[in-house]
Structure formats: C-alpha cells, structure tokens
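Chain entry —
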Amino acid sequence: MKEFSFKAPVPYPSIVFLYATLFFQFLPAAYIHFFQEYSARGSLHSEVVFFLAAERMFFSSTYLVFTFLALWLLVNKTVGQKGSSDSYLAILSVARIRRLVAGLLFLSFCFIFLYGVNGGFQKVALLGSDWSSRDYRYLNFNEVPREYTYMLQVARRIILPAAIFVLFFLYFRGLRALKGLIFIACVLQILGGAMTFARAPFAMLLVSIFFAMYLSYTSVLKRLLVVLVAVICLVLMAGLITKLQYNIVEFDLVEITETGADFLVNRSWLVPVAVAINLSFALFDGETNNLYLSGSRLLGFFTGDVIGTLEGRSLIVAPVGFIGDIWRNFGVWGLAFSPWLFFSLFYWLDARFEKLNPFKRMLGSYLTVALVFYWIMGVFFSAGAMLTLLAVCFVHFPKVRLRRSHDISSFPSSIESTR
C-alpha cells in the first residue's frame, strides 16, 4: 500500500482569528473613524449619523480585539509562545485519500447539478444576452428553492475549497498522483461559481491554491512571492467576475485590473466595515431595538421564513460582518460578552489543535480561515457560518492518537512514498 509522510507548520486557530479581525475589522474602522472617511455604501445617512455610528463601530472593534488579545496573552504568557506547530508525524494512505476526495467530489457534483437544473444552467446560458446588467445580476436570487441554494453553498464554500486545498498541498509537497482529482475539483468549483457568478467561490479557489502553496514553503522570500502572486491573481479574478456577474462580456485588461483593484481595496477592506456602520450601528442603538435573531438567516433555516435578498426587509440580514451582526441582534451586552465567548471557542480549538496530526492541522487551519472570513465578509448568525463552524469543530476532534517523533528533523520535509 502506498503511503507518505510529512510535517507541516500551520498557525493556531486563535492566531488566524486575531490577525484577521485586527486587519479586516479594527484597522478599517480606525481608518474611517480617524480620517473621517464617509461612505454611503449600503444605506444613505447624513455624515453626522454616519460618523456617530462609525465611532460605535471603532470602539466595539477595539474592545473586542484587545480584550481577546489580553485574554490570549494572559493564558499564553508571551506572544511568541504559540504561533504554529509541526511536532507530529503524519503517515497517510494515498488510496484512502483518493477514495475520500472522490466521494466528496461526486457529492459536490450532485449538489451543483441539482442547483443547475433549477435555474443555474439557465443563467450561464444567458451570459452575453440582451438582459440588462441589473436583471442579470439578480436572476435566481429568489427563484431557486432554498434547499438547492443550501446544497450549492455547501459544495462551493465548504467541500470543494477544502478538497482543493488538501489536494494542492499534497501536490506541492511532491505527491503527483492526484493530478486528475485536482483538475476535477477545480472544474467543479468554477462550475459552482458560474451558477451565480458570485466572486466568493472563485476567490476561495485561488485562496485554497495559494494558501496550500504558502504552507508548503518555509522560505520567507518564497512565501512573500506567493502572497504577491496571489494578490495579482485575486485582482484579475475580481475584475473579471465583477464584469461577468453584470452580463458585461466586452472589456479589456485595464478595465479588469481597475475593477479588481477597487474590489480588493474597497470592497474587501473598507466596504465590509462601512456596510456594518450604515446597516447596523446607524440603525440599531444597541439597547432598545435589538433583533434577537428575528429575521436572521440562522433562525430562518429552522423556521423556513427566509428573507429574500430583494425583499424590503432584507436590510436586517445584509452582510454586515460578525461585529455588526452581534450588535444589531444583541446590542451592547452582546458585544460585551463576545470576546470572552470567542476566546473560549478558540482556546478550545487551540487545545485540540495541539493533539492533531499535520494533515488535520492543515485542514483545520484552512477551514478556520474560511470560517473567519465568512464572519468578516458575511454575517455571524447564518446557516452557512454555523455549518462551517461545525466543520471546523469536527476536524479538531482527534480520533487517533499519533506518536510523537523523537527527532522530527530526521524526517524529510517533502513527501516520501513507500511501498
């Protein structure tokens, strides 16, 4: 039976959450607050209302980030004590990985196909037609039954990205026997993204590939090069998919680059916080009009009362990020307790993380990245976010206790095949 072994340094879950929240929530909120950067994204408020709400967002993100950091430092003593770990040796069967991934790819194909025959294929066929940009953008937002939408999201947001990440990581570490599965997984992810021409599935495809490449290298220079190439590819991808989702098929490289750069700087960094300010902190005072999950996508998943994107009340389920979502649902007290709850969750994940073999560590680390960015770019109280959280927790349950290596440096850094 063909087997391989490897070691893999990957970041702890708490590190992923802390850095992502610091960079994508606290820093944009601080920039808007101190530089008085007004944005009407999501809803139009006067500058006075906007900047009062921006102040709330800034102090909320500051409290959450630095309370979490203080708890983390208190438990871990020093910042450098925990970052990444590679103290276990993993020995895995190639045949077992093939069977597992093949089964997941077939399941994903079924989910995508069911969505496709219920409207997804029609949208792909209409690309380049005389439909207006707005009508094409919102086609199938409410027409496709919810159960098929959930299936599509599970396939292209959880199963396929995780499979692509694992396959590419093993490929970059020397296992070339999985090239066929890599091709099928990438085609399915692209097809799943084309069902709605949303940018997120295509972004997750690139992130899966480049994150796997990043973890495969130990050289700082090579890792910086990977990050640079990843940013360039994300810019081009964002520009291209933005054009296609609005049924624009005539464009040039300059237009794609400008659109993609604007997406990466504004839509991915400033806009999530600006939307939280406009649609959460400006509309809800944190005390008297909390939603308490009323109308949330998470509650709607169980009750069947799901608010559509184009409905008048869709503002209460708009993607405002996890800080904005906690604020509009549970107000001041929700945010007061949130860093303690997040720390409890990630402390538990860190403790489990230490007992995992490198294979599960890298998969758990990737899913944690996906989860945190789901919270930042979307909402906290949604079925998709909770399913991703369950997937993260599932991976962090160690089933087999592997022996520690007495001299990990004696094992090769790349995959070795044995017969």
Remarks:
- The chain is about 65% helix and 5% strand.
- The two ends are 6 Å apart (CA to CA).
- The chain has a mean pLDDT of 82.
- Strands lie at 3-6, 10-11, 84-85, 90-93, 416-418.
